[in-house]
Design goal:
The complex is a heterotrimer. Chain A is α/β, with parallel strands linked by helices. Chain A has 14 helices and eleven strands. In chain A, α4 packs across α14 and α7 crosses α11. Classes of the chains: A alpha/beta, B alpha/beta, C mainly beta.
Chain lengths: 387, 348, 130
């Protein structure tokens, strides 16, 4: 298996992009990545695109063909991968496998979601199809509702508080203020979060990630060829993916994601690192409780202490293990299929020292954690500076 | 006649709307309304309840008391004037939910408030004709009363279910006889596609309720050569508290015979459920050897009268499912705006 | 959800019919088509579950999905049934703010949803505090 590196990344602005279409977004992100990599489009061998639900959001399937066509990359193979909100992370993993195996040399890992072309209620309904339609959605489960069930149990077992969850939102909104691509450039206070409208108790509106349009791309090559294109290649040192029951009620625990635990175990092993070696991480904070559970499951603290270390500032910029320096799904926005790639974009920029005001000084090892649904799929990647 | 009641069960939704709440909204004098109707509050179905769900819980309770294998139930008839579907039976929903399917016949009945007792008679005939071992008759409703109509004070929700079988099959009460009285009397109706019924006001009294109830009851007493003194209890259809007490008086029954089965004061008029819940309340307390008169009334119009003799099995079966008072006493009071939301008078 | 899709699950939804593996005695609900523990060695048979359980976790849904507007706010819970399986269900007939982890519930038959005002009504289970 060959080692694989990222040589260029690109991101669209994240937000409600009323005047930008699906096809325009992917072209923008792709062009930026190609420019960043300093390659010519003609050199690209293949593409993997993470997308949760173009069928529901823009009533368009077969987007692989659409994308490669509008990117001017015909006739290279393009493959769409789907695992709800983990689609992007999976696309990255597929691109990694393609390069590592030797089948392709230069591969684009992309992610895209256009979520605002339909009404918010329809978007929410489309997102809910990531849950079990027969036994969760049928009885009135919503996505926030499913995470709220985890939050309530986490509070019950570990004494996690609504204030601690609010602190995740406060931190991530703060970080997003330093990210030009983020959806929100707006600080929020603990009180703002606690006083925002109840969505599914104990989760309130500001505990939830927003509806976002956006696209992200990363260009992967064999590590041994990376120096031809860039001085700062970012090595993908480890990848791990795992699955769990689609329905929350069928899982062994409600207070963590087994898929995350299994995926990160594989990724750490492959990269030859441990949790304590990681300098920063982009984790899947679709809801504030999700970040608290993620930092526990990833090994950054003991189970049950996610709320506590958030409260103590350990996950803030400048803290022991900065989490979601990009603003995370909460502050940067969560265009579901794009999120997994956007996380890798942030880590690549951080490890290259290009993260501006949110730069984590001396960052050598970064981690991304992308979750599908309420935890039915998790994918983790570990990145190292190539020097 | 060799048929009896093998099991019985009821269900009454939990929410209650007091007369005062309705009167407050429409500017009526609550005390006058309460005196006039002899009624304090009515039951209101939750947002996830309808005639089918009410019928299912009543039917489950009847099966528990009956101790029968649901697969031996050969017929299910659900009487209601608020079936959830205009076309598609409620009875199939009940049959499936109590696991009586697929070897049975099923149908929905509609005869205003007496469709449930019509089902009892059908089951009696079929059991007597040995077409089946057990039959189930259900009366259940989520009654509609237009906002501001006097019916709004009384139109309630609830249901009762009876399992009918041969007396030898562990009957908790035998049915000694039944008699009906039917004419075409339009005292109350709801036209196709209309959400609320209309009624003839005072016309619903003398020529309708009183004429039919007394005629059916008298015919039954004559047929069985019984008088009011032969009965420990009498249950009459209960559109309000006043009518059943008055009709009892006309038939020579005392209020003591009527009050144990008079539930309308606390739960309102449960329409097709009314007479059957009244009978169930009496069975909840009656002793073996006591005789019960039950007379339903359905607008349009007709009455079915039954003479029921309580048997020894009542003592063991009575406690096998929740009693009427268990449901009556677990009410949660709501205000009119909550009622408006639950009854979908206000929809978001 | 189309009519056939609702219809084929009616026994499970109306009567809590799950499956039991004759090989390992594990009871599963919602029903499955292969025992996750025994896989091909397992032998699944229909099994009617007892209707009692306990609340493992709950939430009060204030922003409901389409079709549930008339019921919100409602309590939604993960219930662990006596025989082991867990399911997600609404808690009905209660003040949703009174629900607690550990509360005992019984499963009841209720209207769960509908396919619009003129569509099929979806009946199924909900939980009621006992």
């Amino acid at each position: 298996m060959r080692k694989v590196a990222i040589i260029g990344v690109g991101l669209t602005k994240f937000g409600e992009l009323w005047d930008v279409s699906f096809r325009q977004m992917i072209v923008e992100a792709g062009a930026r990545a190609i420019e960043d990599a300093g390659i010519d489009g003609k050199q690209i061998d293949a593409m993997y695109v993470g997308n949760m639900s173009a069928g529901q959001f823009i009533h368009q399937e077969h987007i692989a063909s659409l994308i490669v066509d509008h990117a001017g990359l015909l006739p290279i193979p393009c493959t769409r991968v789907e695992a709800a909100c983990a689609s992007g992370g999976l696309a990255l993993r597929q691109a990694f496998i393609a390069v590592a195996s030797g089948i392709h040399d230069i591969v684009v890992a992309a992610g895209i979601e256009k979520m605002t072309d339909i009404l918010a209620e329809q978007t929410t309904e489309a997102l809910a199809t990531a849950a079990d339609q027969e036994w969760e959605a049928f009885v009135g489960s919503t996505f926030p509702g499913i995470y709220a069930l985890m939050a309530r149990r986490h509070m019950h077992e570990y004494g996690t508080t609504e204030e601690q969850m609010a602190m995740v939102a406060v931190k991530n909104h703060h970080n997003a203020c330093f990210n030009p691509c983020a959806q929100y450039h707006m600080e929020v206070t603990i009180e703002d979060v606690l006083k925002s409208a109840l969505v599914a108790s104990p989760l309130k509106l500001l505990d939830c990630s927003p509806i976002t349009d956006g696209a992200a791309c990363a260009i992967l090559v064999p590590a041994e060829k990376a120096r031809r294109y860039t001085d700062t290649p970012i090595l993908i040192a480890g990848t791990g993916q795992a699955s769990d029951a689609i329905s929350l009620h069928d899982r062994q625990t409600l207070t963590g994601l087994r898929a995350t635990v299994e995926a990160v175990r594989a990724a750490y092993k492959m990269a030859g690192v441990e949790a304590r070696d990681v300098d920063l991480a982009e984790v899947h904070d679709c809801f504030t409780i999700a970040e608290i559970m993620a930092i526990e499951d990833l090994g950054f603290c003991k189970k049950g202490e996610g709320g506590k270390i958030t409260e103590q500032g350990e996950t803030a910029l400048g803290g022991r293990i900065p989490i979601n320096t990009s603003g995370g799904l909460k502050g940067k926005g969560h265009p579901v299929g794009a999120t997994g790639i956007a996380q890798a974009v942030e880590i690549a920029q951080q490890l290259s020292g290009e993260a501006g005001k949110r730069q984590v000084e001396g960052a050598q090892i970064g981690l991304t954690h992308n979750v599908g649904g309420s935890g039915g799929t998790a994918v983790v990647h570990i990145f190292k500076r190539g020097d | 006649m060799d048929v009896g009641i093998i099991g019985y069960g009821v269900y009454i939704p939990r929410y209650r709307l007091k007369v005062e709440e309705v009167a407050r909204v429409w500017g009526d004098d609550a005390e006058r309304v309460k005196r006039g109707l002899l009624l304090e509050e009515k039951s209101v179905p939750g947002p996830d309840e309808d005639t089918a769900t009410i019928a299912v819980e009543a039917a489950c309770n009847a099966v528990k008391r009956g101790g029968v294998d649901p697969k031996e139930i050969g017929a299910i008839y659900v009487g209601s004037e608020s079936h959830p579907y205009a076309v598609k039976p409620t009875a199939t929903i009940v049959a499936e939910a109590i696991e009586a399917t697929p070897n049975l016949t099923a149908a929905d009945y509609e005869f205003a408030c007496k469709a449930g007792t019509a089902g009892i008679q059908t089951c009696m005939g079929m059991v007597e004709a040995r077409m089946m071992k057990y039959g189930m008759a259900i009366g259940a409703d989520t009654a509609q009363g237009a906002p501001g109509d006097p019916l709004e004070y009384t139109a309630a929700a609830g249901g009762g279910a009876l399992i009918i079988g041969k007396n030898g099959a562990g009957a908790l009460a035998t049915i000694e006889g039944t008699c009906s009285y039917t004419t075409d009397t339009p005292d109350f109706w709801r036209r196709e596609m209309q959400p609320y019924p209309r009624h003839g006001g005072r016309f619903t009294g003398k020529p309708a309720y009183f004429k039919h109830v007394t005629s059916a009851a008298s015919a039954l007493l004559r047929q069985l050569q019984l008088t009011s003194r032969d009965f420990a209890y009498a249950v009459f259809h209960q559109p309000n508290g006043k009518f059943p007490l008055q009709v009892a008086k006309e038939l020579g029954f005392s209020s003591e015979q009527v009050l144990p089965g008079l539930l309308v004061v606390k739960i309102g008029n449960t329409y097709s459920g009314s007479t059957m819940i009244g009978l169930a309340a009496v069975l909840d307390q009656a002793k073996p050897g006591e005789r019960i008169l039950m007379v339903s009334y359905g607008s349009g119009a007709g009455s079915d009268a039954f003479s029921v003799m309580v048997q020894d099995a009542i003592e063991t079966k009575r406690d096998m499912a929740p009693k009427v008072l268990d449901y009556v006493n677990r009410g949660i009071n709501i205000d009119y705006s909550t009622y408006a939301r639950l009854r979908r008078l206000l929809v978001r | 959800m189309g009519v056939p899709r609702f219809w084929r699950e009616i026994p499970n939804r109306y009567n809590l019919i799950g499956v039991k593996c004759k090989n390992c005695n594990r009871v599963l609900f919602p029903p499955r088509f292969i025992c996750p523990g025994c896989r091909r060695v397992g032998k699944l048979e229909p099994h009617k579950l007892k209707d009692r359980g306990k609340i493992v976790s709950f939430t009060v849904v204030h922003v409901p999905p389409n079709g549930f507007e008339g019921q919100a706010p409602y309590a939604l819970a993960i219930v662990e049934l006596e025989e082991g399986p867990r399911l997600t269900a609404q808690i009905t007939d209660c003040d949703p703010n009174q629900v607690k982890i550990g509360d005992d519930v019984e499963m009841v038959f209720r209207r769960v949803g509908q396919e619009g005002e003129d569509g099929v009504i979806y009946y199924g289970y909900k939980a009621r505090l006992v």
